[in-house]
Amino acid sequence: MLEAWIKKVLVILLIFCLLSPLGILLTWNKSAWGEWDQVKIGNETWVPQHYSGGAPLDDYDVPGWDSKLMASFGYIISAFVGVFMVIIVTLGIIKLGELSNEFRKRHS
Fold it and tell me: Residue ranges per domain, the chain?
């Protein structure tokens, strides 16, 4: 069974994931802060070549999901993917720390 604080953290993360499309819905017809592209600001945008095209869900969107409702689902899916990846990496780091401590105890 999960500890109470873990349940609270998971509920908060769930709420944040479900609220993630709120910003894009509020600014659907206007430019959201930080969401500019080269068309909007000219050629001032520079993206390192190895950064472009490497996102699991580029522009937080699923290709072909262009309506507001479907774009919202794309944002929610993207949020869950991001949270899942952070949790997996964090658990991996914790496990490595535990293994390191066990190794030190055995060899000291």
Answer: 64-107
